[in-house]
């Protein structure tokens, strides 16, 4: 269905490239757009087009920084700055990376950490002056990165390398000395046997709020909990327990959440809730897990709103499943359907976000009144199954969704569309996104 839809909208997409009403940045190295934003309640949204830089660097990436307050963002008047990432790294004396795919901020948001899916480079970007200030290459791939709560290390998931890298960090160090020597956990044959898979390709390695534990999801299924102090595997969930295409991991209070999505709409997607509190109380205990089937197709990013509602972004089906969370789903007195209950399904297609938004990752405003989503482009640079066109979008950029009823409802509000034309083809493809609060 999506293939037919894409073909039908080809000429619409082309016309929009020519006559887009949302902000469009020309092919220049850095563009500044006037803003109506004042200092009151202002914040920033960082989003990365992982395709070719606007200066021509193949897969060098383009960082867009949008700033303003809530009203500026939904009114289309946010300030916009564009930075050619690879060129910025080279200008500061560092080796350039390829396909910037993941972005997180350290605690305090003084620096952004960017992982590169093709080359394995990890950037540290000074958030105040928007300059790359250190680069490390711990392995052949840095699909996803996460930061420790005490700012002492970064974890990078090296998907094809079947390993996770722990990179020491010191954000007060001089330029070029922020990253230390990486320590690597290679998943061995014992882990493979316990997972019940031929490979152990980590997709995400997410550090918890204590900094001692990390949940790692895998492409072929299963998950592990890693002791980040010793960089050893503490607990394993097999691929029979947790389905393949494990994706995002999210720390939520006493619980940890992971998900797993599929491009094929005939194969179920899932959320998994772990009793993380039991691990903190007794590290030798493997946390019990609750498996929640999803109605959406190709689940990807997720966010928790107001500590009560979980928003699951469904990339291929262009919608958001909203769940009401019980704060303690592992309480034996809470019955199954009340542990994690779906209460709404928000359709994003043919709204302010365009006919085929293809939402990927998300971020919530400090006020928790807006959700920002990265929207994929017509020529996706990663994670697309050509049989289903699950990562193919029409209008790449940053979509804005108003959060309503305390998180129980949503309203698509505005699209900051950013095209990237190479030889007449729009290659822009947004994936990484973070809100600097």
Could you walk me through the main structural features you see in this protein, from its secondary elements to its overall organization?
By secondary structure, the protein is mainly beta. The protein has 6 helices and 31 strands. The strands form 8 sheets. It has a 5-stranded antiparallel sheet. A 4-stranded antiparallel sheet has the order 5-6-7-8, with helices on one face. It is globular, with a radius of gyration of 20 Å. The model is unreliable at 3-38 (pLDDT under 50).
Core attributes:
31 strands, single chain, disordered N terminus, 10% helix, 437 residues
Helix content: under 10%
Q: Which strand order spans the largest sheet, edge to edge or round the barrel?
A: 1-4-3-2-31
Measure the end-to-end span. Answer: 39 Å
Low-confidence stretches: 3-38
Strand content: 35-45%
Largest sheet: 5 strands, antiparallel
Number of strands: 31
In round numbers, the mean pLDDT is 92
Category from helices, strands and their pairing = mainly beta
Global outline? globular
Explain briefly what this protein structure is.
With 437 residues, the chain is mainly beta.
Q: Mind sketching the topology for me?
A:
Blueprint: H1 2-8, H2 10-19, E1 32-33, E2 43-49, E3 62-68, H3 70-75, E4 79-84, H4 85-91, E5 100-105, E6 111-116, E7 122-126, E8 131-136, E9 144-147, E10 153-158, E11 163-168, E12 183-186, H5 189-195, E13 202-207, E14 213-218, E15 223-227, E16 232-237, E17 246-252, E18 255-260, E19 269-274, H6 276-281, E20 289-294, E21 299-305, E22 309-314, E23 319-325, E24 340-347, E25 359-364, E26 370-375, E27 397-404, E28 409-417, E29 421-422, E30 425-426, E31 430-436
Antiparallel strand pairs: 1-4, 2-3, 2-31, 3-4, 5-6, 6-7, 7-8, 9-10, 10-11, 11-12, 13-14, 14-15, 15-16, 17-18, 18-19, 19-20, 21-22, 22-23, 23-24, 25-26, 26-27, 27-28, 29-30
């Amino acid at each position: 269905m999506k293939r037919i839809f894409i073909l039908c909208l080809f000429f619409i997409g082309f016309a929009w490239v020519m006559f887009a009403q949302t902000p469009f940045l020309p092919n220049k190295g850095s563009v500044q757009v006037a803003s109506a934003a004042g200092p009151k309640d202002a914040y920033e949204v960082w989003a990365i087009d992982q395709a070719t830089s606007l200066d021509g660097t193949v897969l060098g990436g383009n960082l867009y920084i949008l700033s303003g307050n809530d009203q500026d963002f939904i009114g289309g008047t946010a300030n916009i700055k564009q930075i050619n990432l690879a060129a910025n790294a080279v200008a500061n004396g560092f080796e350039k990376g390829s396909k910037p795919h993941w972005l997180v901020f350290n605690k305090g948001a003084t620096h952004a950490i960017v992982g590169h899916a093709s080359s394995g480079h990890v950037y540290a970007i000074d958030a105040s002056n928007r300059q790359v200030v250190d680069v490390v290459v711990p392995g052949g791939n840095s699909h996803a990165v996460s930061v420790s709560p005490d700012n002492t290390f970064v974890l990078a998931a090296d998907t094809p390398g079947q390993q996770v890298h722990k990179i020491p960090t010191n954000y007060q160090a001089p330029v070029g000395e922020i990253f230390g020597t990486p320590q690597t956990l290679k998943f061995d044959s014992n882990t493979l046997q316990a997972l019940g898979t031929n490979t152990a390709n980590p997709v995400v390695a997410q550090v918890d709020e204590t900094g001692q534990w990390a949940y790692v999801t895998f492409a072929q299924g299963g998950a592990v909990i890693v002791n980040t102090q010793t960089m050893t595997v503490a607990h394993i969930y097999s691929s029979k327990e947790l389905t393949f295409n494990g994706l995002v991991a999210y720390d939520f209070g006493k619980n940890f959440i992971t998900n797993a999505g599929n491009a094929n709409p005939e194969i179920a997607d899932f959320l998994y809730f772990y009793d993380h509190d039991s691990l903190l109380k007794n590290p030798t205990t493997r946390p019990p897990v609750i498996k929640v089937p999803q109605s959406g197709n190709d689940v990807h990013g997720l966010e928790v709103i107001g500590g009560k509602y979980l928003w699951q972004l469904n990339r291929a089906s262009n919608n958001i499943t909203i769940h009401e969370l019980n704060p303690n789903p592992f309480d034996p007195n809470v019955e199954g359907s009340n542990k994690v209950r779906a209460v709404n399904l928000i359709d994003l297609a043919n709204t302010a976000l365009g006919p085929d938004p293809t939402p990927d990752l998300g971020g919530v405003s400090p006020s928790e009144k807006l959700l920002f989503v990265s929207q994929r482009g017509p020529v996706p640079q990663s994670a697309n199954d050509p049989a289903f066109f699950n990562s193919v979008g029409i209008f790449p950029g940053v979509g804005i969704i108003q959060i309503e009823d305390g998180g129980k409802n949503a309203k698509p509000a505005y699209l900051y569309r950013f095209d990237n034309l190479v030889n007449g083809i729009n290659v822009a493809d947004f994936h990484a996104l973070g809100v600097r609060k």
